[in-house]
Design goal:
126 residues; alpha+beta; 3-stranded antiparallel β-sheet; two-stranded antiparallel sheet; 14% strand; elongated
């Protein structure tokens, strides 16, 4: 009888630990790291406030979940592991001729404070 109680207690603790680890990984957001490439390796870049505003629009256009806290863009921790994707988003922010794809989620874009007249626009309008 004591064995059954110990077994159930162990499973309960194991289940709680599993949900705790899952929730840390699933709901964790970290600051976006602007990324460049110098020909050999990925390097961290610095963004100013205006570039972070543009970054919010780029992330919205590609339906990337993010949070904005005290002027810092926070993205899901799994995104930070993909340096090539970070480089791609960084390049879109710095490219003055980049256009958001037609049919982008304009409601999400408007939440950044920018009100485009049509689905396609360049980042020069900011």
């Amino acid at each position: 009888m004591m064995y059954k109680f110990g077994y159930k207690y162990f499973l309960f603790i194991l289940l709680i630990m599993f949900f705790f680890v899952f929730s840390i990984n699933h709901f964790s957001y970290v600051p976006f790291e602007p990324t460049g490439f110098d020909g050999e390796k990925y390097i961290k870049l610095k963004f100013d406030n205006k570039e972070y505003e543009k970054l919010a629009i780029v992330l919205d256009c590609y339906h990337v979940n993010f949070k904005k806290k005290q002027g810092v863009i926070l993205v899901h921790r799994d995104l930070i592991k993909d340096k090539e994707l970070l480089l791609n988003y960084t390049n879109k922010v710095t490219d003055e001729n980049w256009k958001c794809p037609a049919g982008a989620d304009l409601q999400a874009i408007r939440r950044t404070g920018y009100k485009p007249a049509r689905a396609e626009y360049t980042l020069n309008h900011i």
